[in-house]
Design goal:
The chain is of the alpha+beta class and 95 residues long. It has one domain. It has two helices and five strands, in the order E-E-E-E-H-H-E. It has a five-stranded antiparallel β-sheet with strand order 1-2-3-4-5.
Length: 95
């Protein structure tokens, strides 16, 4: 889990599961596990979160790559994240 963005309004976390282990000699990964990734976007204002995986995660990954190239302002990032808040139906639960 890696926090990518944290502001007064949003938190974005990259979650990767099934990360392959290295062999004992540290060379090649073990092929046994399926590697998956997704993004959790938490809207601190509403206390809700949305988890993006599959094609949604791939589209969001493209957005992140564009941000790395173009260096947007914080307001531009927040406006883009705000477009995902309509998908946020799950209340944030601490577990």
């Amino acid at each position: 889990m890696q926090t990518l963005y944290d502001s007064d309004a949003f938190v974005v976390v990259h979650i990767q599961t099934g990360v392959p282990d290295r062999n004992a000699d540290g060379d090649a990964p073990q092929p046994a596990q399926l590697v998956r990734h997704g993004f959790e976007i938490v809207d601190k204002r509403s206390g809700k979160e949305v988890y993006l995986d599959g094609s949604w995660a791939e589209m969001f990954q493209q957005q992140i790559l564009a941000w790395q190239r173009d260096t947007p302002t914080q307001q531009e990032v927040e406006d883009a994240l705000d477009r995902y808040t309509g998908l946020a139906q799950n209340p944030v639960v601490i577990h």
